[in-house]
Amino acid sequence: MIFLETILKSIVILAVIASLSGLGTYAERKVLAYMQRRVGPWMVGPAGIGQILSDMIKLFCKEDLVPKDANKITFMLAPLISSTGAFVALSPVPFLPEFTIFGHTIYPILSDIGVGILFVLAASSTCIYGLIIGGLSSYNKWGLLGSMRAVLQLISFEIINGLSIIPIIMMVGSLSIIDIVNAQSGGIGSWFIWCNPVCFIIFLIASFIECNRTPFCLTENDPELIGGCTTAYSGMRFGIFFIAEYANMITYSAIMTLVFLGGFNKMWFIPGGIMMLLKTGFLFFFFLWTRASWPHLRADQLMGLCWKILMPLSLAMIFITALVIL
Question: Which chain regions cross the lipid bilayer (predicted)?
Fold first, then answer.
């Protein structure tokens, strides 16, 4: 029974997150269009909602090209590595509070492991291998440069990502995401964003890097006419990279909600499940909002931000939290 329930949860998570990733592309076009005084998708279906289906048809039907001198096996495996890492990271994430159906209690989490937050960071970081392998195996100098920039930013900011979470773990005394949410059950005043706002900002910036989002990403720079390490990809293989990016955005929006914004705890008369969806949706919108508002940083500016500002701040917050606990 437990095995069957786990299989069903896995299928539901894959189906829902993949669908939301497609819907996220539509939402991003509409949000950017509104902020830039454009129309956005409007011709295919009511309000352009059919654009999602047409994009899927285009990706599935477009010719799947493999460069002549590319390493074909690794070239084809790279998108799968990125998407697998993005979806596996969802395993210990509780998207909703537990609820009961026909007398059976449902836990909206695939696996409540004791090191949940550490598992999310570790699993999502494996997406970098797909980007590196894709760029190196494509036999394309632009893909190679894109993969090297991916290494530059992701490895650096993964360190910052982990350090910014340590003060929260020290306060809770557990790596379990459920325990972190339960520690914030005292209402809006008990959210960790109030006692550790610096850690929240640091984690938010690092999340932009992990999700390859403007203004902090270098893997695929929007002003350029190339696609970074995915330059040589076409058809559904490019689409898989895209799905992995949006799945990561959903994952990190949910993680920031769970760790810093009270998670699925109810607020006033609003049920916990609704609060979880609202806060996660706002953070997802914030990713889109920032892309419409800020330009890219240069590589030297990004690395200076990482090692000269965020690293000392992270270590300082760990030291201050330790003093407060003692």
Answer: 7-27, 73-93, 113-139, 151-178, 190-209, 240-262, 268-290, 302-325
The domain ranges of the chain are 65-325
Cβ atoms of residues 79 and 133 within 8 Å: no
Q: Which of 153, 180, 17, 152 is nearest to 89 (CA)?
A: 17
Q: How many whole angstroms separate alpha carbon 250 and alpha carbon 300?
A: 28
* Prediction pTM value: 0.90
Q: What is d(CA 99, CA 320) in angstroms, rounded to the nearest whole number?
A: 38
pLDDT in tens, the chain (326 residues): 677 877 888 888 888 888 888 888 888 889 989 988 888 888 888 888 888 888 888 888 888 888 888 888 998 889 888 888 888 888 888 887 777 777 777 777 777 788 888 898 888 888 888 888 888 888 888 888 888 888 888 888 888 999 999 999 999 988 888 889 889 888 888 899 998 999 999 999 999 988 888 887 777 666 666 767 788 888 888 888 888 888 889 989 999 999 999 888 888 888 878 888 999 999 999 999 998 888 888 878 888 999 999 999 999 999 999 998 87
